[in-house]
Specification:
The structure is a single chain. This protein is α/β, with parallel strands linked by helices. It has 9 helices and 16 strands. Strands 3, 5, 6, 7, 8, 15 and 16 form a 7-stranded mixed β-sheet that branches. Strand 13, helix 6 and strand 14 form a beta-alpha-beta unit. Helix 1 packs across helix 9 and helix 2 crosses helix 7.
Length: 336
């Protein structure tokens, strides 16, 4: 086995006066450079997420140590394993668990990973499709699971999905529609995305600016549940519109980390704000999420959601996702 391979490595910027404190580039590494973990994986694909954009552009302080290999998820085939749960030839996926933060990530043709962080890939998906779903789709599934576990059924009323043109939103719409929910999609690109979002199952597409306004503590009840990847003022406005004992599954902060709301939705309507953490979710929840994804994902719809780009395009792709120019999912072919 050839011990050398390519990886997108984040290093300290040698220009101390530069605004971006880190820079990333493709480097040639060998097996001895890899972390001391118990499963060696031949990586096929990773994907592009908002956090990845922050890492590869140096615009976010995500990496907790340097050098760091970027990419918050990966899919590939086990080459060697010191853990009996995995054998050479197993196809596996990793989402989160600090990849590209405290553990080397998926933008590498080879990676060593802790066996406790792996999930065996269901035979329904190949590794390309697994990364078309990726962290975004897996997070969307966790959001839908939260809605189901809360007891909200399609009969309770419409479900709102914010950031609908993004990776989480697109997959959430697909999943919710498959389960029979009436889905309203919110996006800042209504004209460009309406046909695509209705094709995924949204019954209505609304402009996100309708929620980017200050709201009274309580407004008219509209939503039985919400999948929110936006946060900020839009989330505050939406909370005031959630039905009695409804739920908001919140997983993002594209509009900011602040929440200019009040306790009124929570104590007067019993609304639940359920935070969705995909990074450190338990293996039990991960296994359940990937099992449900294998049952609910329409592979034809999935094929319309993503494109494949080479690892060399990461700097440009990082800028694009941070500026809101990426629709759906971007799969990164680390071997292209």
């Amino acid at each position: 086995m050839n011990n050398t391979f390519k990886a997108f490595v984040i290093q300290q910027n040698p220009d101390s006066a530069a605004k971006q404190k880190t820079i990333g580039s493709i480097e040639t590494l060998n097996n001895a450079d890899l972390p001391d973990e118990n499963v060696l994986i031949k990586v096929d694909y990773s994907s592009l997420n908002y956090k990845d954009g922050l890492v590869v552009t140096g615009k976010g302080r995500i990496c907790r140590q340097l050098p760091m290999v970027g990419g918050i998820d990966l899919a590939g085939t086990v080459l060697e394993s010191a853990d009996d749960r995995y054998q050479a030839g197993d196809q596996v996926v990793v989402n989160g668990y600090g990849l590209s933060e405290s553990h080397w990530g998926g933008y590498s043709q080879r990676q060593r990973v802790n066996a406790d962080h792996l999930v065996k890939l269901d035979a329904v998906f190949n590794t390309e499709q697994a990364m078309a779903i990726g962290t975004a789709g897996y997070t969307a599934m966790l959001c839908v699971m939260a809605i189901q576990d809360h007891g909200v059924t399609p009969e309770h009323g419409p479900v709102l999905v914010t950031g609908a043109a993004g990776g989480v939103g697109s997959v959430a719409i697909m999943l919710l529609a498959k389960l029979g929910y009436q889905v309203t999609a919110s996006t800042g690109r209504v004209d460009a995305c309406k046909a695509k979002l209705t094709g995924l199952g949204a019954s209505e597409v609304v402009d996100r600016e309708a929620f980017n306004v200050e709201s009274k503590p309580l407004a008219g009840e509209k939503w039985a549940a919400v999948v929110d990847s936006v946060g900020g003022q839009p989330l505050a406005t939406i909370l005031a519109q959630v039905n009695y004992e409804g739920i908001v599954a919140a997983c993002g902060l594209a509009a900011g980390m602040s929440l200019p709301s009040s306790v009124a939705p929570f104590i007067l309507r019993g609304v639940t704000l359920r935070g969705i953490d995909s990074v450190m979710a338990s293996q039990q929840r991960r296994a359940r999420a990937w099992k449900l994804l294998s049952e609910l994902i329409d592979l034809n719809h999935l094929a319309s959601l993503y494109c494949i780009e080479p690892m060399s395009a990461l700097p440009q792709l990082g800028e694009a996702i941070l500026s809101g120019q990426v629709q759906g999912r971007v799969v990164i072919d680390v071997n292209a």
